[in-house]
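--- STAGE predict ---
source: upstream dedup step, 1 unique chain passed
mode: sequence only
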Amino acid sequence: MADPEQSPLLPSSTDSTSATSLPTVSLYISHALSTWNSRVFEYAAVLFLTEIIPGSLAPSSWYALGRAGSVIVASRQIGNYIDSSPRLPIIRKSIVYQRIAVIISCGILFLMLRASVNVLHAATPGLVFSLQSELLIVLIFLACIERLAAMMNLIVVERDWVVVIAGGNIPLLTKLNSQMRRIDLFCKMVGPLTISLIISFTSVKFGIWVVLVTNLLSVGIEYWAIARVYHRVPTLALKTPQSHRSLSPSNTSVQAVRRSFSSWLTPFVEWSRHAMFLPSLTLSLLYFTVLSFGGQMIVFLLYEGFDTAHIGWLRTLSVILELSATFSAPWLMSKIGAIRTGRWFINWQSVSVVFAVVFFCYFSDRVGLWGLIAGVILSRVGLWGFDLAVQVQIQNGVEETKRARFSSTETAIQSIFDLLSFAATIVCADPKQFKIPAIVSAAAVCISAVLYSVYVYRAQKL
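--- STAGE serialize ---
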């Protein structure tokens, strides 16, 4: 029986990388486990916090705000570290750091859950609330570590390893991107649905145990699988670490602060001057949204009377449509190219979110709510098709020596917009005010579509 690792991705190619056997199974196993754990914990943490501290959007918003803020602050350091280090040690560290952060977070959630039960019987409930607040701060700190490790893993695999494995073969690169995205969407569909059903039919405590045990069991397999990929693709070991200029000693603290700020700002300036700036910016702007079945919308739907199982099924339907984009986008790119494909999908998303918000604002009853849900679900096809089209452009348009730096900066920009979306629900913490961030989200998508049209116009003139 043939080793599944020996199956070539394409039947034939002039490129040596695609003509040889590739360890695709190991690559997909590692990515699937990493994505599953990340998606489940990201979704479950919102459900856990909502159950432990009910009645407000603020706790989950502060939690997500901290995650996004950590990326903004540490993006330069992460990018420089990836560029200046060998590939295998980086990704192994990202796996271990991510799992340790989640495991400790589960312990903190157990303590918060116990405190939420004790508050009902406490003689001094104020002390219990204070304890919960302190534990929430620790949880946010751990979430920052988990987010940075996940970011490191994502940049290394999707923006570097996949490009090196493809070896300049565009059809192979598109195929790898699509398969990785399908894995991501499958985990996004099945993972949250699974944890939602577990919580619905058992308890929050049992759900926390499931997340903890899953992370414990998967770390060794991830560690082994990614090493197998590295050793089976010799070109991954050929990376030449890039050194980045460090800050020179300063005579005054004021000069030190200025130099530090200038150093932090430099990658953003480089990113804004790169040829791939506009497509990167338009993709990043889409992170300024509450219309995504993310934390804010989940809390809003729970407030409106949906239970976790119903939300899980709605999210599953959304992901099924998102998966369709991983088939339609590569096909369309093969017909009209990545740039024009991106325009089709961003326009689809714009029309869908405008429909959703108009329905939601015009109808105040259940009809408006279901119109919102339907529009959001339809918009996800446009989002993921656009994501794939832009990713191919960026992978081919950014130099190898700048991939990590560019990608980490792009992730920081995405986190800024993500942060703004959570800031909107902190300001509008009452679920009755959800229409305001929903309108702002739709406006962000429309602005993104306009900016991408500018990019397409410029590209056609070249």
